[in-house]
Amino acid sequence: MPIISVALGEGQTSTKQREELIRRLTSVAIDITKLPAQAFTVLINELPNDNIGVAGKTLAELRGSGAL
């Protein structure tokens, strides 16, 4: 069973956006592999913004400074 995993910073997406990600990622995977939808599992992991680092700073720091 193929697993598609996506990691996002907390608060980056709404429930509707995550649902759309699941639908579209599954659809693209079906188109490419020709496997049935039931074969795919999509995992969306929301990580705390202080557990993600970009350019030596946490995502929380970057958001707080207005850089993102």
Automatic annotation (TrEMBL):
Highest taxon, organism lineage: Bacteria
Annotated ranges, domain 4-oxalocrotonate tautomerase-like: 2-60
SUPFAM superfamilies, sorted: Tautomerase/MIF (SSF55331)
InterPro entries hit by this protein: 4-OT-like_dom, Tautomerase/MIF_sf
Keyword hit for Isomerase: yes
Keywords of this entry: Isomerase
Molecular function, one GO term: isomerase activity
A UniProt-annotated Pfam family: Tautomerase
NCBIfam families: DmpI
Family in the record: Belongs to the 4-oxalocrotonate tautomerase family.
This protein's name: 4-oxalocrotonate tautomerase
Organism: Desulfofustis glycolicus DSM 9705
